[in-house]
Structures are given as structure tokens and as C-alpha cells.
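Actin-like protein N-terminal domain-containing protein
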Amino acid sequence: MNLCVGIDIGNAKTELAFESNGQIQMVRQPSVISYLPKTPEANDLPLEQVMENLFDNLVVNISSPSIRRNGDYIVGKKAMQHDGIKTNMTLSLGGKSTHDVPIITSLSLVAATAIKDHYENKEELPESLSIDLKMATAIPSSEFSKQNAKTLEDRFKTKHNITLYVGDYQVLVSIKVNECKVTEEGRTAMLAFFNSDDKILEGFNKIYGENKAPSDFMKARTLHADIGDGTSEFVVIEGANPVQGLSKGKRLGVGHASDVAISLLRDHLNISDKFTRQQLQDWLEKDNERGQLARDVMKEATFVQSQSILEEIQLSFQELASSDVDYILVHGGGSITFKEDIHEDLMDFAESNHFKVVWIPEKYATTMNSRGTYYLAKMMFS
């Protein structure tokens, strides 16, 4: 099986973008793993039910020369629910190019995607699969260098064996990564933007009374503010091409606000030291007292973080872009979390400095990196 994918290896989630039946599809899981000291017991659920919830119940055995410890792992949402030691990305340290979490989560999603595709098309579970993979991904500007990019490319570009535990069955997936491109986060966003439908500009057109489509930005000079979980990336782009040397990453984002919120939460509740940022995100969706408390402390934490992000956008406009852009595009998961605290002030700043703000809608904001890396992989390798 040949696969071409883009992978967003975020601090909060890992998202895989690929093409199926002429449409871009995305699958995602929290960027959390938990090592298992012994092989897990199989469940006795019907295979149809197991396959329906496959991505939320990833249990794998991984053998790869690119990770420190081979063995059994729980990955993603299921790892968050596990009572063992959880491993995610350490925001203060960064290091996506050397961390094992991006390798394990990415390969697990690739394996699960291939198995699910085979099951749905062949109406049977395969005993084994072989995948020739071509891929692109990205690391933060604050970490990016040619050497760090090559380190991650080399870690992916080898053969990995993933055994996925599927109910009572075990499926061996051999993944050979033939091509891998690692670029800077934020640089692929314009590829995703140009390949989006016109609805991505619905809010922009309503605010400014215009009727623009993504293709109208082909010659524009833009500044991208990609607000993530562990880092936020700021990149100046001419048309579709990043301007060499005009990009930077800052350790700002939803994860940092989440860490503050968890600290505030501990003042109210006796929560475990193992409580993760990803678990907090789950609590924020709950319709109960814990959910309301989580939302209250998160609101307090996001306001402080949002002021730092707003200041960094303004500095990037003045110093990185030399106060010369037509538009600032704001996207990433943090663009949803921080919009209430940033949007109005940024609009005022834009009006004073004679540029316009394209705030990417929630439907598109969190997939810009995964879709962008997919289009990059497709352009380079297909």
C-alpha cells in the first residue's frame, strides 16, 4: 500500500491528513502515550464495534530504531484515560525533533488508518500490511534548523513495525518511510489556505464588505500568526512563499495557559499530579460543576496569555515584517481559545496601521498545518 500524508505533530494533538476518494480526510488523537510493562489483555467486544472506535482505543506494539524503548504503548485518548504514567511533550523544553512522542503517535495513526481503510474496503481484517509512506511534517520555528529538520527526517526515514491490538486480533503493519520532508511550522499554512473553499473568507468578507476568494491573495504580502499549544509561529509570506529569515517562534499558546489553569484548579480540587493538559481540555467540555470550574480557571489563565500573544503579533508586524503587510492571518487551535481576548484589540491595531485581519474560522483553523503539510508532501513526492 502506498500512502502520502501530512502530519501535524502538535503539543496537544497529532493530526494526520491524507486523500481518500478525492477528498482530504483528517484523523487526530491527543499527543499522549503511556508505556505498558506487559502486553494488555484483549477485550471481547465484537470486531465491528472495535473498528468503529479504533482511533480512540489505540494500543500498539512498536519496534523501531528511532525510539528509545520498543514495546507496548497506549496512544492518544485511551492513554489519557489510563492510570499509568503518561508522557506528552514538555512545553518548556520543546525538542520535537528528538522526542519519541511524535514518532509513536504519528506511526500509530498511519497504521490505524491503513487497517481501517483495508477493513472498510475489503470487509475483513488483514493479518498484516506493508506501507510505503511519503510524508511531510513541521517543527516550531523556535526549534527549527537544518540539522534539527534532518534529525527528524532521518528518524522517520527507516522501517518501523507496528502491531496494532484490534480486539482479539493483532495486525502487523510494516511502515517504510521512503520520503520525508520536515519544514517550519507556519510555512505550510498558505498551501492550506489556497486549497480551501471560499467559505474560509466568509467572516472576513462580511467584516470588510468584500467578496474575496483565497486566490485573490496570490500576490499579497501576509504575516501569519499560527497560535498553537506549546508554541506560536510568526511567518512573513509573499504570495505562497515564506520570506527567508522572516520567521520566529515563541513559547506561547494554549498549553501554557492550560498549565496555569491546572495550577489554579489545584487550589480548588485535590487533583492528581498526573493530570495532563489534554485531560483539562476534556474537562472544559463537561456539562457539570467540574466543567464549569475548569472553564472559570481557564478563562482567567487565557486572558494573561492572550496579552502576551497580542503583543508578540504587534511586535512581529513592526520588527519581523517592518510594518509592511497587506494582511495578518490568524489561525491554529489557539486562535479559537484566545479570540475573545485578542480579536477586538488586533482589529483596532490593524485599522491604525492600515492592514486587514483574516481570522481563520474555527472549521479551518486547527487543520491548517496538517492540510498544509499534506499539500507539501503531494507537491514534492506525488
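thats it. The chain has two domains: 2-184, 198-254+281-366. The chain has 13 helices and 14 strands. bye
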